[in-house]
Amino acid sequence: MADRTDIPPAPPSRLARLRDSDLWYSFRAHPSAVFAAILLLLLTLGALLAPWITPQNPYDLAALELWNSEIPPLWDAQGQWPFLLGTDVQGRDIYSAILYGSRISLVIGFASVMLALAVGLSLGLIAGYFGGWVDNVIMRVGDVLLSMPFILIAILISAVATAALPPDLKSALAAPILIVAIAVPSWVQYARTVRASAMVERKKEYVQAARLIRVKPWRIMLHHILPNTLTPIMVAATLNFGLAILSEATLSFLGVGMPPDQPSLGTLIRIGNQYLFSGLWWIVVFPAIQLCLIVLSVNMIGDWLRDALNPKLN
């Protein structure tokens, strides 16, 4: 039997290509990025596994007991088990509330970034590919949004939507309203970035060749232009994820975000801030630390990704 030496080897898997890529090597060689990724993974796992690792469901008002209120952390002389980080004035376990609140903050932050990314990519591709009056209309709307403070637009949308809803739907639709309120002023950055790349790519030979053979515009935008714009979009989306979490916390702190019966980290900080000078410091300090750790880890990953994908630094 002849030796089959002419058979080409099987192509490497995606995991193998990722393991041998420059991006993975840059990640392993960046201690702060590794630390931030591990920290964010632990915080995310804690939030996702909250129903199984917490002693209490803070959203179940029937489970709250007032005689367990204002208990200090466990290491204090008056601390009680299983309230590791103490309780608030309603008897809500702070540790449980932080993990459940982190779930809301992470989900709202991620969903708002995805919504803004979808809108920004679509409008940016359309504006950059077609140009003309379509480009002018989309970019002028974006300029109007950029001329207004981000937080004021989010407050306006959240307040108007909440006021227009019937009382029985306000609590159920609080999270979707926040997602839309954060996403509306956020899509402009993605649209401007994609538009600039699309205006450059549409003049290249491969796009002109695709037009000559009657390839549909949406296919050209999705399969030819979009892949060349993903690098700056990935960096912007990562950094905006931390900004979206902070925006949700700010809106909830101002009272136009999540309701007290579904507290996010911003709502917990707002509630705890009322008792900061009465000696109940743990109600506001621990949620604030959790929020800082999440945003810090996301920003550290975003900074590494920006440096790793910048061709001028490689």
UniProtKB/TrEMBL annotation:
PROSITE patterns: ABC_TM1
Subcellular location: Cell membrane
Membrane topology, record value: Multi-pass membrane protein
GO cellular component, one term: plasma membrane
GO biological process terms on file: transmembrane transport
Major localisation: membrane
Segments crossing the lipid bilayer: 33-53, 104-132, 144-165, 171-190, 229-255, 275-296
Domain ABC transmembrane type-1: from-to ranges: 102-302
InterPro entries according to UniProt: BP-dependent_transpt_permease, MetI-like, MetI-like_sf, OppC_N
Keywords noted in UniProt: Cell membrane, Membrane, Transmembrane, Transmembrane helix, Transport
Source taxon at top rank: Bacteria
Family (UniProt): Belongs to the binding-protein-dependent transport system permease family.
Protein name: Peptide/nickel transport system permease protein
